[in-house]
Amino acid sequence: MDFKTGETYHGFKLLEKENIVEVQSKGLLFEHEKTRARLVKLENSDDNKLFSIAFRTPPQDSRGLPHILEHSVLCGSRKFPARELFVELLKGSLNTFLNAMTFPDKTMYPIASRNTKDFFNLMSVYLDSVFHPNLLNQPEIMKQEGWHYELHNPDDEITYKGVVYNEMRGAYSAPETILRREIYSSLFPDTVYGVDSGGDPDVIPELTQEQFRAYHRDYYHPSNSYIYLYGDGDTLEELRFINDEYLKDFSYRNINSEIKEQTAFEKPVEKVVDYPVSVDETEDGKTYLCLNWVTVKSTDPELSLAFEILGHLLLKTPAAPLKKALLGSGLGRDVFGLLNTEVLQIPFSVVLKNSSEGNRDEFEKVVLSTLHDLVNNGIDKKLIEASINSKEFLLREADFKRYPKGLFFAMKSLSTWLHNRNPFAPLEYEPSLKVLRRGLTENYFEKLIDKYLLNNSHRSLLTVRPRRGLEEDRTVALRQKLADYKATLSPEEIDKLVLQTQALAKRQSTPDTPESLAKIPRLSRSDINNQAEELPLAEKQEAGIPVLAHHMFTNSVAYLNLYFDCGVVTAPDLPYLALLARVVSRIDTRNHDYSDLANELEIHTGGIDFDIFVYRSIHTDAMLPRFQVQSKALIRKLPELIKLLGEVLGHSDFSNTSRLKDIVHEMKSQLEMKINYNSHSIARERLFSYMTVADQYNERIAGLALYRSVSDMADNFDVRAEEIAGKLANLASVVFNRQNLLVSITAGENDYSVFRKEFSALLEHLPDAVPVPVHYSFSPPVINEGLFTPGKVQYVAKGFNFRQLGYEYTGVMQVVSTISKLTYLWNRLRVRGGAYGVFAQFSRNGELFLGSYRDPNLAETLEVFDGLPEFLRSTDFGEEQITKYILGSISSIDQPLTPSMKGIRATIRWITGNTQEDIQKARDQLIETTLEDIRGIADIIDDSLKKNYFCVVGSETKIKQSKGIFNSVIQVFK
Ligand SMILES: [Zn+2]
Q1: How confident is the model over 644-662, as pLDDT tens digits?
Q2: Is 749 a catalytic residue?
Q3: What is the gyration radius of the CA atoms in the chain, in angstroms?
Q4: 436: number of CA atoms within 13 Å, CB side?
Q5: How many whole angstroms from 71 Cα to the centroid of ligand 1?
Q6: Integer Cα distance of 388 and 432 in angstroms
Q7: Measured at the alpha carbon of residue 941, what is the angle toward residues 940 and 946, in degrees to the nearest 5?
């Protein structure tokens, strides 16, 4: 269809059309004539279609209105009254993406699907939900998703409950969240960016039902909306649907939601805040120092891109001068930058971690004097080239992994569109890149530093310091506050509160009626593709090395991955192996010092990443640990990539111990962030390490055991430096060995010859020795641990390896996982318990894992896990329900894969012996699931849970209260 500018189509007038070569799309910008709703369509050949509707939602305070509304909108609507509408869609659609997101200035509701019928179904549910949600007449929705007083018996203590309340309590547990929050509040005291749209748990309970409804009325209107469509769908039909089904019923309303700018400061400000650490933890060396500026505007795509590159070259790469200066100053142990190009005025921060309050002035001096030097002496041109190339590679590759491309483009467009500027400008990066390349010959980036950092008083200096017992004090204060509140209530009011608590619980435990569920549009089993997708893989041999070739269109990029068998590393050396994965390519080599090497890598490649995974054979259960090297480059740059791989794998020089020291400290810091932000994976890894040798291996290269080892290396580095350097050199020669190697190349079929020609050059740099496999045995672990951190919420993990009980994996388990997660655990732990997230997973290797995320409870959650088999046995799932769960399970298996992901997945299947027949068999089992099958799995779960293996990461108070159930209680941070 050829749309004409100025013409109207189903109520939408075309304002602009443009070919946007960078995203291989035709861009159409419409305005809905009746409501002035804005609509963009990116027309292209991508079948992963996206629809998104966003509203400008300026928060007035930190009560979390935009965030609680985002949750509540998807809890039932006029046409679709099911109370857990969002989760019903997750259970039973073929979506490739389904979510809702709160930003500091907007709220976005995106869906994606490759199936046209499904796409329209999801679009309909989302549009009905945002414009006609049941939250307007059902106050229980805000209570459940936001906050409410909970009181089960008149004599109990009153507590606060609510999904967002707990989600944000979990978020506010991590020092980095507090840091980010304070950066914004210090820089934007007078605008929406100074408050938290997500909600500060201390003030969330001030939110009232009236404010809540008013906020929806004020902002969720077509006149305040931004609709985005992307993909190969029929644009005319999409416009017709949106107008006829929804927008035609509205008229224009003048809505004042403009995002105001913060006036620049006349002089910089300073601020000091505290964050909690455990009662017995040391406070030494745990302060964050942070210098922040308000820089350019996101509505200027060129400057916005320039600052992304500037942030990278100052702080991200190993060659980054500001990072080097700060680490060299000895004032702290880890340095990173923060930059957010999604808010109107882009904040830029330099953060020094593991410092102390007394270093504050010196920190500021080092930052400013380093920036002065860069302006006066010029930035290394090679570093500039490297940083521009690295960004350019990412822009052209546009590999967003499991996220739909359309989602990223929509978010990019909104950075200008939301502020009344052209939505296509941020997608058209070629003109900006061209300007930025002037930085290679002129002082482009130096001028940016001079203007936006050195001569800019809109700046804040922040100190975020640890305080022991802060969390305990706050807990006491909160209990007192709630006790005081209770004291103001009359006996009648207390009885009323108990009744309200019961009424809410009753509502939450009453399933939706079949009639309300039936209103949700559904696909049928015939919409499912019965065939499992085949991934391209050709087995070859080059110079005696096995090579897996995955031929497909990759837009001139070659993905070259190396897999070294690391079952040759002795158990005590495993932490050093994990360190090796962080060190290689970031330390000196025979021909380059580490800064120069970093520049070479960015100039010639799209990056090289190192990691370790412990796979297991699908059929024999043999443990298959692999040191993985994932690299990419343009095809024409393959020779340089291979040369650099040879350099880092064969000729790394570990003797620069001061560099090594920085990396060890940085690794410690990153593991701490993993513990704070991925506590559920820490709990999970620890749990399975109770059971198998493979998981014990994993615990030593990724889990809490690794954190312990790395902490010791960091704390005693000076005495251990030689030993560590020696270990690394030895491991590199043992692991990076030709006879341990498997190669995987993903590229176009015609490009294989380029690879073949260059490949043997790599082998010259690798030793050729007969590997000596290690037989691993570890001392028996202490099971059932309680691991406490300064956090406020729990991450409860329970499970077992059912293969050890003689059971085998079947495709039916995917269906049971969907039921367990989205019905049983969701209702019990999230809706009723207030936990933010739940897990129910079965792996091919026999792992059954049940988990909770940001959970206010502990013992109660373990009880809920134990009740799962009985729930599965006693529920009569009808044919329609089972079909729904099958659809939901298939959609999580059939997520579209990018070329790099296809290559990796095909390789892993080959390594683990997971054949196409195995995959097809599991798919058949899944699609043919019956009630009988589901009940059969209940027995496996029952037997597994009866082994009673669990692990909990949680708050000190909660873990210590339940210490009777643990064999060991451990303080995570010392
Ligand atoms: Zn949320």
Answers
A1: 999 999 999 999 999 999 9
A2: no
A3: 28
A4: 23
A5: 6
A6: 11
A7: 105
